[in-house]
Write a structure and sequence with these properties.
This protein has no helices and 10 strands. By secondary structure, the protein is mainly beta. The strands form 2 sheets. Strands 3, 4, 5, 6, 7, 8, 9 and 10 form an 8-stranded antiparallel beta sheet that branches. Strands 1-2 form a two-stranded antiparallel sheet. The protein is elongated and about 85 Å long.
Length: about 200
């Protein structure tokens, strides 16, 4: 039961008690796929190695929603349905290389890249007076979002005696985000870069 206030053209606000029944159903279908490839190469020189990896992730999401509401007054009757088709794709690539320059100096470097693509196509429908579901364009839309990340690093390790090391290094990262809607909405676009240096002693 629901209590709400109603008003006619000439009368004051009146409290009225009305009842309605609401039935809703949500059906989801989610699928995902992962695939990765790894490779590693070593040399006779102890500590020298190169590794690389590639990862693919793909996910599909499909959601259907139905709402039926019937009340003791026509203003409470409501029939709606919606569907949302989403897709996520992600690609990751990484490579690292380690090279001992001498017994006390070691060189390390690597790169990593990530690309994410996401899309969503959602539609809303209302049952009209002809008992036909008509699309509500004010709520239906399509959106896309893309994120690209690129990063790299370089580290030199200097061994001091047996228990101590100095590791000066440089790391760089660039992130680019872009998103848009098929109709309306505010596009998303920003880019950020970071550069760090470090010197660690352990």
């Amino acid at each position: 039961r629901v209590l709400f206030r109603s008003q006619n053209e000439t009368g004051p606000l009146l409290n009225s008690m009305h009842r309605y029944n609401r039935n809703s159903e949500n059906i989801s279908n989610n699928q995902s796929f992962d695939w990765n490839l790894d490779y590693k190469k070593t040399w006779k020189t102890p500590g020298r190695e190169w590794s690389t990896s590639f990862l693919v992730n793909r996910a599909l999401n499909h959601n259907d929603y139905t709402l039926h509401q019937a009340g003791d007054t026509s203003t409470l009757n409501l029939d709606q349905k919606s569907n949302n088709k989403g897709m996520n794709r992600e690609y990751t690539f990484q490579t690292d290389y380690t090279h001992p320059v001498s017994k006390v100096i070691q060189f390390e470097t690597g790169l990593k890249g990530i690309q994410r693509n996401m899309s969503s196509d959602y539609q809303y429908f209302n049952l009209d007076s002809l008992q036909v579901y008509a699309e509500d364009l004010s709520k239906s839309n399509k959106s896309t979002y893309t994120q690209n990340i690129a990063a790299g690093y370089l580290v030199l390790t200097f061994k001091i005696k047996e228990k101590y090391e100095i590791k000066p290094g440089l790391r760089f990262e660039l992130t680019d985000n872009q998103g848009s809607f098929a109709s309306g909405g505010i596009p998303v676009k920003n880019q950020r870069s970071e550069e760090h240096t470090s010197e660690l002693q352990s």
